[in-house]
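Exercise 7.
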Amino acid sequence: MYSIARFIVGFIFLLIAALLDIKTRRVPDELWIAMSFIAIVILMVQLILDQAPIRYFLIFIPVVFFLVEAFVDRPMIYDESGLNPSILLWFFVPIIPMAYLMSTSFSDPDIWPLVAIPVMMLVTFILYYFYVLHGGADAKAVLALAILLPYYPYLKGITDHGADQQIVTAMQPLFPFAFVILLNSSLIALVLPVAYLFINLKNGNIGFPQMFFGYKTDIASAKKSFVWPMEYLEDGKRKIRLRPMDEGENIYDSLPSDEMIWVTPKIPFIVLMFMGFILSFLIGNPIMHML
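Solution. The predicted structure, written as tokens, is:
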């Protein structure tokens, strides 16, 4: 029942986000806030119906803390006026309940999937700050998924986690399902170079290595599309740069307007995450398959 509810919620919200990302490359915060709120309600109902110990509900304190950090602007902990004591105390909000839970429930295996929620949320912040997750919407989607899926889902006849249920239970806190979705989304991304290769071979556009990272189009079409130019002029010579460039308009203006150029699409990762979400429900954790 919980797995079905979580799949429906994740499917609907990620589908809406993917469509918005394709059309506008913008996903409003309200979408992720609503998804996170529903995810909290589902988890709270599950804990109540399963008659979980009262201390389990302390996990919502760090969860809400990280959501506030993601969606609400607050003063800096340190600025030109010095250290801000109130903001410093604010960071003890998640630490205290987490420390209490870990000290009183360390030997309780049921608490660890819950503890993994704020841990995964913290990892998401780190991935975002180090540009592993490039977009704010991508990071907020992972935050919402971390709350929505604290446990590996089970749908009879559909989900296949590639391992005995006891192993699945043990893997939950080590590899939270939100991380599994990220992993499967990245695996899907590996298909893109193969797709570009076939498209370019079909169109007779040969160029190494750019034929694995994009395709050729005219400048007028490129300006209207969500793409980065891979070609640019330097000292009068045309060169290839595979890494995305933000100065697209200047690059376009420097190239002959009547020629085809190599471009690489701005692939919205939310789309890959939507596909990874579905794939994760079907195959589970690929690491367990490998093992």
